[in-house]
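Write out this protein's structure.
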Amino acid sequence: MKSKILIPLLAGLVLLGACKGQHGSEEFVNNSSSADSVKVADSATLAAPKLVKTADMRFKVKNVQQTSEHITTLTASYHGLLMHHQVGSSELRSMDIRKGDDSVIRVTAFNTTAYITVKIPTDKLNDFMNEVGRMGIYVNNRQLDISDKSLDYLAAKLKLQSRKELVSQQKRGKIIIKNPANVLLLKDDMVDQQIDNRQIDDEVKNSIVTLSFYQSNTIYKETVVNDDPSAYNLPFFKRLIGAIENGWVIFEELLLGLANLWVLIIAGFGIWMLVRHYRSKRPAALAKT
């Protein structure tokens, strides 16, 4: 009789324990799944850091103009954007060699350089830099910089979320902002943070590459008009005839000047005669005394 009562009791205890164990296992599964979801979210956040890459290169080429055209074509093939392109030549020294009375041969030494800034998709940055490096004779400098803006991006995102929540509470009447200008400033700040994050996204997606290259100094010869006025003179015999004519003109002017002074000449001659006559009579008078 006792055995008949104990058997159902033991069976009930076993079933109760099994149910509790199943319930505990379900809680463990749920907790583990939620923990796994948190880990997945964290890993997803860590797997996408906001790394901004910038690169620059300086190298020597055979021809600056041709290399500029090749880089422009290469940038378009990589779906990049040409942001800055500048080509310039600076004169080092020059010398003029006289070729004739009115022309000279001007020899000029100058160097040519170019500066190009492009925006290239980050996943194609290394391939682009390698192809550009093969265009040069040799590379003077090649540099790659990586800036981690993950924290800046996260800070702006969290601030934006908090401001959105504040605006939402203000709309629902939970928070009252007395000055309407503060609401406008808050919304403007939210717009600025959105723009900053979009700019970071663009910088992560596309890298800025600065290229500077040059070629060997170039010698250029050209025949130009002589710009020295002193070089333009008449032939010798023409200048000699001109000198004689100028001398005769000066002699004529001298005669005309003397003619204009005839009164002074006569007066001077008269004074000279009186002085001479006085000097000739004075010794005779002294001798008589």
